[in-house]
Design brief:
Helix content is about 45%, strand content about 10%. By secondary structure, it is α+β, with helices and mostly antiparallel strands. The N and C termini lie far apart (about 100 Å). It has 10 helices and 5 strands. A hairpin with a 6-residue loop joins strand 1 and strand 2. Helix 3 runs parallel beside helix 4. Keywords: Coiled coil.
Length: about 325
């Protein structure tokens, strides 16, 4: 009987260790999801995508209404704003339900989120910023392991155990990076979209030579069958002045064109795609809609990552005449 009892206890301990390891893995996965979202939202904040005043919020909502932006997109915009404060800044005291209830329409959701952002967050933003509550990097969730509720006053040893982390910071950071990559691969987030300027550039001749990406719809992945956005890189060769250039939207460059190209329409050059049997680059006139800047649908457009990197690279100062003069 003793042998059987010892075997039972050993089996029970193995089971408990297995469940502990399983729970730690579940905790790590849940925290990695929060950490990934916090970093994504902080990237949005770092790239000027955060509204910081009631005036700016009202102006943005009026712009979206005048441009007939859908209520779904407006609600998405408001959710992103609130998530920056809650997840990236760690201001959990201003959290609120971000999805519509069964009794809320899309208009009701937009009204509730905009009211919460305006009255519960933005009205006190400047005071919290002056108090130093705006972090310089994304606030990561605590790695304290969950424990059972304690009865009475915990002892010093119990308090120390309750504050012990269940994994190292390096392990957690690796899990966050893997989660961000998983979200990127699954199409839940777009790291390029997060770092893009919030407003589109003016379509003038200054953009000639710039490299863009234009979304050409979605395609089905051959690996898992998921739908992925097709971002096509191109160069801007010309911007129509509305007086001399001729061409039509979506049509290749042609000497036989008779229609005057509207001012601001761009001539883009697509690089040859060997996978599609293309041997030479092609040029096409494209009418870019500012409302689709950094969007997600067909003909959304944005800077190519390499172009954005060049724009944000520190500019080297030209040497002065004194430096170049021979001694």
């Amino acid at each position: 009987m003793r042998v059987i009892s010892r075997a039972d206890r050993l089996e029970q301990r193995k089971y408990h260790e297995f469940k502990k390891a399983q729970n730690r893995e579940l905790q790590l996965t849940a925290l990695a999801e929060k950490g990934a979202l916090a970093q994504e939202r902080f990237d949005s904040y770092a790239n000027g995508r955060l509204v910081t005043s009631a005036r700016n919020l009202q102006a943005e909502l009026q712009r979206q209404e005048s441009e007939k932006v859908s209520l779904t997109e407006t609600a998405k915009y408001l959710r992103e704003q609130i998530e920056i404060f809650v997840y990236a800044f760690g201001w959990t005291d201003v959290a609120c339900p971000l999805t519509a209830t069964s009794k809320e329409s899309a208009a009701d959701l937009v009204k509730r989120l905009s009211s919460h952002l305006l009255h519960k967050i933005l009205h006190g933003f400047e005071d919290r910023r002056r108090r130093g509550e705006v972090p310089t990097e994304a606030v990561m969730p605590d790695l304290v392991a969950r424990t059972e509720k304690q009865l009475g006053t915990p002892t010093e040893d119990t308090t120390r155990l309750m504050q012990a982390t269940f994994c190292s910071r390096e392990t957690f950071q690796k899990a966050v990076e893997q989660e961000r990559q998983r979200r990127e691969d699954a199409g839940f987030t777009d790291s390029v979209q997060l770092v893009m300027p919030s407003k589109p550039p003016e379509l003038t001749s200054k953009l000639v030579g710039y490299r863009l990406e234009i979304c050409w719809g979605r395609y089905r992945s051959t690996e898992d069958g998921s739908l992925l956005k097709m971002w096509c890189p191109c160069f801007i060769e010309r911007v129509a002045d509305g007086e001399t250039d001729k061409g039509a939207d979506g049509k290749p460059l042609s000497d036989n064109a008779r229609k005057l190209a509207p001012r601001g329409m761009v001539l883009v050059r697509w690089e040859a795609d060997p996978d599609r049997g293309e041997k030479e680059s092609t040029s096409m006139w494209m009418l870019l809609d500012p409302r689709k800047w950094n969007g997600e649908g067909h003909r959304a457009w944005r800077y190519h990552p390499s172009q954005l990197a060049r724009m944000r690279a520190p500019k080297r100062r030209a040497p002065s005449a004194d430096c170049c003069r021979a001694a």
